[in-house]
Amino acid sequence: MNVFEEIVLEIEEKYSRSDNNIGWRFLTVSKNSLSTNSGIFLITLNPGGRKEDPKQGKGSCESGCAYITEIWKEGCCPGSSTLQRQIQLLFQRIAKYNRYGYKNYTDLLENSVCGYYIPFRSPDFKSLKDKKRSLDLGKRIWKQVFINSDFHLIICIDTITFSQVKDILSELNCFEINSRDYDTGWGKYKSTVVKYTRNNQRLTLVRFPHLSRFSIFGREASEQRIDTIFNKIFEA
Question: How many domains does one find in the chain?
Fold first, then answer.
């Protein structure tokens, strides 16, 4: 049994004993990304919505990255919701650094590890049931993923996942070098870039404001601020 299969079995078992009852999702890309990937991880808090779409993958998305191929807003085209577009623009920006060998941002996104920290669906975090056990499950499964992966950039878009991932990295003997907040060009909202070292390798953890509410990518007023953030992310 491989890591993906072990994780899915645990999610199914914990979900069956949870008070959450509107479905679960783990990866928003192919399960193959866990074994072969760009070294980039995009981890968001948990799947939203009030019901499960039977057409969407649960453990993984084998027909293409959900941020590109799925319809998240009724009556709209695939990949056209605010969050989907922002994630696409985020990876377009990453792809411009041309360090990954993928032919375009779509390939880069589909070959990165993208998934939910907590697999259980809820309309928002406040309405998520069994919060402590759900967070404990998230920590176990992502710690297992990190242990079995090479990674150098982790991206979060909420403070809860960001804090939880920081805890995991500390437990994995990743030593924080520095942390700094940066203006995003959207009022007082900040982005945080944290630099780590582990086994003589540099790692970066980044938090952006939640991109479903703050469309900072592709926004002229944020352009220079985003440049500053990415220069820090990819500095030598």
Answer: 1
Tell me how far apart the alpha carbons of residues 214 and 211 are, in angstroms, rounded to a whole number. Answer: 5
Residue 199: give the domain boundaries: 3-233
Angle at 124 between CA 123 and CA 129, to 5 degrees: 90
- Give buried/exposed letters for 26-57 (b at 16+ CB in 10 A, else e): bbbbbbebbeebbbbbbbbbbbeeeeeeeebb
Do 150 and 200 contact (CB within 8 A), yes or no?
A: no
Q: Is the pTM of this model over 0.70?
A: yes
CA 153, CA 142: separation in Å to the nearest integer?
14
Percent of the chain with pLDDT over 70: 99
Segment 220-230, tens digit of pLDDT? 999 999 999 99
Question: What CATH number is attached to the domain comprising 52?
Answer: 3.40.470
pLDDT for 167-195, tens place per residue? 999 999 999 999 999 999 999 999 999 99
DSSP assignment letter at 24:
B
- Sign of the CA dihedral 26, 28, 31, 32? negative
Q: State the residue for tokens 């440049």.
A: 227
